[in-house]
Write a structure and sequence with these properties.
Blueprint: H1 2-5, H2 14-28, H3 31-39, H4 47-68, E1 75-77, H5 81-90, H6 97-117, H7 119-126, H8 129-151, E2 154-157, E3 161-164, H9 176-197, H10 203-218, H11 229-232, H12 237-247, H13 251-254, H14 260-263, H15 268-300, H16 313-330, E4 335-337, H17 341-346, H18 352-365, H19 369-372, H20 377-391, H21 403-419, H22 422-439, H23 448-464
Antiparallel strand pairs: 1-4, 2-3
């Protein structure tokens, strides 16, 4: 173990690495409840099936980055990328669950090729800083918006599109049964914020658990809340594996390449452009998220090399790419390195041993799906909103007084939640950047890669939307 992970060289011990791995798991375990909640909305795959897929996928990805790159980081279905998969690619573009998995598979294969050839870094550098920095904030708003809708706090309105749900239980506009889950979401969010302010590890995870307990306790105050409750319980953990095997695993191969339903309403040209542009969007979002997290987490733990670079960078990126291919086979969205890994690093994690511990805990979690299924949506919605808060931090790095930077950044941020589409936000920001540079006489600052990506997104609008 010492020889493989180089514990002494990194100034750590087995005990420290174990504690760090446990801390990382506790801070990111919320994905085990949030991801299945999103995917189950598709109606073709169950909560239990995606729970197993998410845990298995996280275990594989985290093992890879620990063994290949020897870094104390963890991977799982990326927040934002899962929303893009469900709400944009499936609900927005009209592709089936299995069709969308094909795009994830392509994303992983492309990443493997780009990583091996070194092109991945070149593509990353082609995106202007104003757009690149803004992307996490836009995704954060998008995720928070989804959380607010899932909680029922924001509802549809015919005149203003959306509005706040009614809390008025006195004149009959709302009942206590309607308002109680809304209050759970609000106070769960506050509870998470308070614990985070006190630097309690696993604040999001414990917030979800606390909100769930309150929900079921207050359920005694709602008439008929527990009627038929026992019939919904599924306490056999192995039935979840069965659902995973029949509904998620391998669907990318058995059903994914059948685009007949989409082609019945769209042209083949439109499908080709959609596949190219959407795969590109998957790649860009994953690329920015992973690179930013790798650098930020390693910087926080003083793990960067003397040149300020990420150690074993190519191996870390290759782990991400391979894990994404596994993810498509398992039936879930693109992998991402989790910023919550910073919590484990703060606990002293310095090597891949902590990642092995985190992966082991994800393996154990696979047998806890019946318990996870009891987590109410009002509790996981609070987690989504809080993740949105965390992702907004990047806006401080945007020079808002410079229109050349501010306008593309703002469009990237605003268009994601307003259009309910992450790729549209990236596209608007990128296209705006190109035109602003052109009309200000600075066209020579536009990189060739930026032109290519901008043209692809422009074609996407005229062909697929």
């Amino acid at each position: 173990m010492e020889k493989f992970f180089q514990l002494k060289k990194q100034g750590t011990t087995v005990k420290t690495e174990i504690l760090a791995g446990m801390t990382t798991f506790m801070t990111m375990a919320y994905i085990l409840m949030v991801n299945p909640g999103m995917f189950s909305e598709l109606g073709v795959v169950s909560y239990h099936a995606i729970f197993i897929a998410t845990a298995l996928f996280a275990m594989i990805g985290t093992l890879l980055i620990g063994l290949l790159a020897n870094l104390p980081l963890a991977q799982a279905s990326g927040m934002g990328l899962n929303a893009f998969f469900v709400y944009t690619v499936c609900f927005g573009f009209g592709l089936s669950y299995a069709n969308a998995l094909v795009l994830v598979l392509l994303d992983g294969i492309i990443f493997i090729i780009l990583t091996i050839t070194g092109i991945r870094e070149k593509i990353f550098s082609s995106i202007p800083d104003s757009v690149r920095i803004a992307i996490p904030a836009g995704i954060g708003l998008f995720i928070a918006f989804i959380g607010l809708q899932d909680a029922g706090l924001i509802i549809a309105n015919s005149s203003t599109c959306v509005t706040l749900a009614s809390f008025n239980i006195f004149n009959g506009n709302a009942t206590w049964a309607d308002v109680m889950p809304l209050l759970i979401t609000i106070f769960t969010l506050i509870f998470i914020a308070v614990m985070s302010a006190k630097q309690i590890k696993g604040a999001v995870f414990f917030g979800i658990l606390g909100g769930s307990v309150c929900y079921y306790l207050l359920g005694f105050t709602v008439t008929g809340f527990y009627e038929g409750f026992s019939d919904k319980l599924q306490m056999n953990p192995f039935s979840a594996f069965q659902e995973f095997g029949t509904q998620a695993f391998g669907k990318v191969f058995t059903e994914g390449f059948d685009f007949s339903a989409y082609l019945s309403e769209h042209s083949m040209t439109g499908l080709v452009i959609l596949i190219i542009s959407t795969s590109l969007a998957f790649c860009l979002v994953d690329m920015f998220d992973t690179l930013g997290t790798l650098y930020g987490a390693c910087s926080r733990g003083n793990l960067l090399t003397k040149d300020g670079k990420i150690p074993n960078f190519e191996k870390a990126m290759l782990s991400d790419a391979i894990a994404t291919v596994f993810g498509s086979i398992c039936g879930t969205s693109t992998v991402s390195t989790y910023v919550e890994s910073s919590a484990g690093i703060a606990e002293g994690g310095r090597t891949g041993l902590s990642s092995i511990v985190t992966a082991g805990l994800f393996f154990i979690a696979m047998f806890l799906s019946p318990i996870a299924a009891l987590i109410p949506g009002c509790a996981t919605s609070a987690a989504l909103i809080y993740v949105g808060v965390l992702m907004m931090a990047c806006v401080i790095n945007i020079t808002w007084t410079d229109p050349v930077i501010a306008v593309p950044a703002f469009l990237a941020i605003a268009m994601m939640p307003f259009s309910y589409n992450i790729s549209y936000g990236i596209a608007f920001g990128l296209i705006a950047y190109i035109f602003i540079k052109l009309f200000t006489g600075k066209w020579e600052e536009i990189k060739i890669g930026t032109w290519i990506i901008g043209i692809l997104f422009t074609i996407m609008f005229f062909i697929t939307h």
